[in-house]
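User: Show me a protein chain along with its predicted structure.
Assistant: Here is one chain, sequence first, then structure tokens.
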Amino acid sequence: MGVSKGGRTRREYSAEVPRQPDRLPTARLSLRRPAQADAVAVLGILSDPAVVQHNPSERVTELEDVEVLMRHWLAHWERHGFGNCCVFETPTGRLIGNCGVRWMTMHGDRVLNLMYRFDPSTWGHGYATEAAGALVHWAQDSIPGELVVARIRPTNLASQRVATKIGLRRDPAFDDEGEDGGDWAFTDRS
């Protein structure tokens, strides 16, 4: 164990972490571990320029690229027992986005990076808030003491609203430079 910024005790990457359920239900959604069969639907979302407007380097336009990305997501699940999820509307069963937490290093500290991407047809329905909130709650309960960080572009007001609604606060100490420019950090650090 080590100590992260803010005096929080943290486990090493290789330490045993309780597995995230393969399917995590919320009031209106079902978050589940990705499957390669989800690749076509994920491509439909991540190839939409509106979805990656604030992170254009994350746009994918080829099925092969999504399959590589999903193998990366699944490898994180295999190594750590949690990761990026595909998000489905419960009533329709339609894949509407992806949301998850994954290990990353920021400023020399290991953190749980929270990310979310949703089909524009679902924007404004509170799905990102519902999914991200469920995963932050799972992380805080299952991996206590680990810092959750959402990296958000300063111009991405919608994602900033999601982060604050789920209890994350602006934390300039973890601001970072991303591939597409500066990222503001929103964390669960008190």
